UniProtKB/TrEMBL annotation, chain A:
Taxonomic lineage of the native organism: Bacteria, Pseudomonadati, Pseudomonadota, Alphaproteobacteria, Rhodobacterales
Domain ABC transporter: 2-238
This protein's record includes keyword ATP-binding: yes
Alphabetized UniProt keyword annotations: ATP-binding, Nucleotide-binding, Translocase, Transport
PANTHER family, per database record: HEMIN IMPORT ATP-BINDING PROTEIN HMUV (PTHR42794)
Name under which the protein is recorded: Heme ABC transporter ATP-binding protein
Signal peptide: none
Length: 261, 355
């Protein structure tokens, strides 16, 4: 389980996160939502040990602040919000970066499977820097998947930390990638994903944490967080949540809906 | 997500080509070494040189001295310096995630140069006993410490709370290089005519005058640095994704950076100490190899060492034949060959360099 207690993060003199509590479990997809600049990426950086933080983060028994990078790498993969690449690696070479030393012998099989999983079979020999933004994002996801391919290994659950995994994707690939996250959790792994698309969140997440200005407004099941009042307050705009049983949950900005009618 | 079976060779996997290239480069290095042994003012031929490797006693004493005390140390020095410069370049570029980064760029070469020039100009002011103590080693020793000191200062400036900012380090390296250049300029002002000639010659770089004692002075540090390089390969690959992503893959980033900096300081310091400022090897060689077999450091570092050594030997052969019986400093040869070549690479690869 991932347990974060009283997380504070400062950039210089500015406090970005104010004593945030956050929890995630194996077998579940936990989404972090909130407006731009509210601290989602910052929270993610604290949870993965990338940012210095006050408080305590424990991931499957490891204290994140004290754990060795290779121990953490064995149990969790991290997809950053944006990943620049310095040199002209091919797609295969990028995905291989995710593999630890031990699995190198069988790497061609795993690389191919990871690429197939994100719908990029046939892209193996392409240069990463010559791909479209959405294709690059999926190559990075394949790299992260290759790192922690088995959701459970030796009885220990593994984790995916995804910062806006579908931000550059079309609707079909959004569903594909969210399904990967869903399947990973269903197979026993843990998934923490920063999301902007509240509709996808409603469909795929088991839990939603809503952040606003560095505070957690709540963490609970989607139906308890994705509500008109909470969302309108957090995003500072009128939001309407439609929960008609027949059509499922969908969320619209209120003003746009009004204008359209 | 279960079965992991080794599938067929993947299209974008260039590791086979990279391994094959290592074999090719090894052969090339062998040829370059023979060429280097067989070329020179004294007229000992390549055939005689090859034969001598099997049966040393067939040579005249004079030829034996030419081969084993002049050309062989020079060849070994060329191999060491070429490998050191090329691998340092590759490691620097991986560390800075920038194909244009170079040991010269972070001030290591400039610092080493400043040390050497200080020794050349102010060495005459030393009491005779001190000068005698250092003797031949005064300039190399000073160059090594200059490079080392620059690296330490650079490291202090750009490291905060145990983390090195690559951007700060690059900029600090430029500042330190400029500073070293300014001090060098002042020293040149106070140098006399004879010292100026030494300075010019040294500044252009040369492996002429290599002796076994010089080789032995540089070899341990260079060999240690080169032996460290393979352990950096996986980390440097991961670093291409940025420091944060590299850490997430399991790389101890801070340790990687420390080791890489020490490795470069050692290799460049020792190389500059014995051969002066030989430019372009550290930037052209890795660049060329990246174009051919890609940026994977597991192969790039070894191939850089082989190609760097071979290239330096060839440049050295050119330097001692093109205006024979006189010799051109090898730094001029590498600059004349490497400069336009590098510009050509830049023109062709402009897109990939915009990062
Ligand atoms: N390196 C930094 N230095 C200073 N301030 C920063 C830094 N990174 C982020 N911030 C600030 O911290 C706050 C939270 O940023 P964060 O990246 O966590 O937002 P976010 O919720 O992920 O937003 P987005 O939806 O745009 O990705 C913002 O106000 C941002 O300006
Ligand atoms: Mg963000």
């Amino acid at each position: 389980m991932l347990d974060a207690r009283q997380i504070t993060v400062d950039y210089g003199r500015t406090r970005i996160l104010h004593a945030v509590d956050f929890t995630a479990w194996p077998g579940r997809v936990v989404a972090i939502v909130g407006p731009n600049g509210s601290g989602k990426t910052t929270l993610m950086r604290a949870l993965t040990g990338e940012a210095e933080y006050g408080g305590q983060v424990t991931l499957s028994g490891h204290d994140i602040a004290a754990a060795k990078p290779w121990d953490l790498a064995a149990i969790r993969g991290v997809l950053p919000q944006a990943t620049p690449l310095a040199f002209p690696f091919t797609v295969v070479e990028v995905v291989r970066l995710g593999l630890s030393r031990g699995v190198a012998a069988a790497d061609t099989g795993l690389i191919g499977q990871a690429l197939a999983r994100v719908g990029l079979s046939g892209f193996e020999g392409r240069f990463y820097q010559e791909l479209s933004g959405g294709e690059q994002q999926r190559v990075q996801l394949a790299r992260v998947l290759a790192q922690v391919w088995q959701p459970v290994e030796n009885g220990t659950p593994r984790w995916l930390f995804l910062d806006e995994p579908v931000s550059a994707l079309d609707i079909g690939h959004q569903l594909q990638v969210m399904q990967i996250a869903r399947d990973y959790a269903d197979a026993g792994g843990g998934v923490v994903a920063v999301m902007h698309d509240l509709n996808l969140t409603a469909i795929f997440a088991d839990q939603v944490a809503l952040i606003s200005r560095g505070h957690i407004l709540g963490q609970a099941a989607p139906a308890d967080i994705l509500r008109d009042d909470l969302l309108s307050r957090a995003y500072d705009c009128a939001v309407r949540v439609n929960t008609a049983p027949a059509s499922g949950t969908f969320i619209l900005p209120h003003a746009a809906r009004m204008a359209a009618e | 997500m279960q079965d992991i079976e080794a599938a067929a060779h993947l299209p974008g996997d260039r590791s086979r080509q990279a391994r094959a290239l290592s074999g090719l480069l090894l052969v090339l290095l062998g040829f370059a070494a023979l060429l280097s042994l067989g070329t020179g003012a004294s007229g000992v031929s390549l055939g005689a040189a090859a034969k001598s490797l099997v049966t040393a006693q067939e040579l005249s004493p004079r030829d034996r001295i030419v081969l084993f005390d002049i050309r062989l140390p020079r060849m070994v020095m060329g191999v060491l310096v070429g490998a050191a410069l090329a691998v340092s370049g590759a490691v620097m570029q991986g560390l800075f995630r920038n194909p244009l980064a170079d040991p010269g760029l972070v001030g290591v070469s400039a610092g080493a140069g400043l040390g050497a020039i200080t020794a050349i100009v102010l060495g005459g002011l030393l009491p005779a006993s001190a000068a005698a103590l250092f003797g031949y080693y005064l300039v190399p020793v000073a160059a090594f410490f200059g490079g080392w000191a620059t690296t330490l200062i650079l490291y202090r400036v750009s490291t905060r709370r145990g983390r090195t900012s690559v951007a700060t380090m690059l900029l600090a390296g430029i500042a330190l290089g400029a500073l070293a250049g300014a001090v060098q300029g002042i020293l040149v002002y106070v140098a006399d005519d004879a010292q100026l000639r030494t300075l010019t010659f040294w500044g252009m770089g040369s492996v002429a005058g290599a002796t076994w004692s010089k080789v032995l002075a540089a070899a341990p540090l260079i060999c240690l640095a080169l032996a460290t390089a393979p352990f950096l390969a996986r980390g440097l690959n991961a670093l291409a994704l940025g420091e944060a992503a590299a850490a997430h893959i399991g790389i101890p980033v801070q340790r990687l950076k420390n080791t890489a900096i020490l490795m470069v300081a050692g290799a460049v310091g020792a190389a500059v100490a014995v051969s002066g400022g030989i430019g372009f090897v550290g930037i052209v060689v890795p660049h060329l190899l990246r174009l051919v077999v890609g940026p994977d450091h597991r192969f790039l570092l070894l191939n850089s060492a082989l190609l760097g050594a071979a290239l330096l030997l060839c440049a050295d052969v050119i330097s001692r034949t093109i205006i024979a019986p006189a010799e051109l400093p090898i730094g001029i040869v590498t600059a004349v060959l490497g400069g336009p070549f590098f510009l050509w690479i830049l023109l062709r690869q402009r897109g990939l360099l915009d990062m």
